Amino acid sequence: MKTMQLRDVKAQLSAVVDDAVAGEPTEITRHGTPVAIIVSLEEWNMRPPARRPTIADALLAFPGGVEFERDHTPPREIDF
Fold first, then answer.
1. E strand or H helix that includes residue 5
2. pLDDT above 80: residue 24
3. What's the distance, Cα to Cα, between the start and end of the chain in Å?
4. Is residue 13 part of a domain?
């Protein structure tokens, strides 16, 4: 993978996109720090889909675990 400064990518975007389509991704840096990567759409679609955590994941990750107990008391009577 090649690395380019953001200002250079701006000037040569078409060539960088052509390289990505040909299978060569480009890492983009800003002030020497990596900030992005340009890859082809095909390579992007091959990555595993991101999974957002659910409330169940949060409960299962709770330190010490969580114990649930069903309340078997009968419901109260209501007058209509």
1. strand 2-5
2. yes
3. 73
4. yes
25 CB neighbour count, 10 Å cutoff: 15
Cα distance between residue 38 and residue 28, in whole Å: 8
Type of residue found at 67: E
Any idea which residue has 């419901």 for tokens? 75
Q: Residue 50: give its domain's CATH number.
A: 3.40.1620.10
DSSP 19: H
- What residue type is 4 in one-letter code? M
Tell me how many domains the chain contains. Answer: 1
| Residue-number span of the structural domain to which 30 is assigned | 2-60
Answer yes or no: pTM beyond 0.70: no
Q: Is 60 helix (H, G, I), strand (E, B) or coil?
A: helix
What would the pLDDT profile of 49-77 be if each residue is shown by its tens digit? Answer: 888 889 888 878 878 766 778 889 998 88
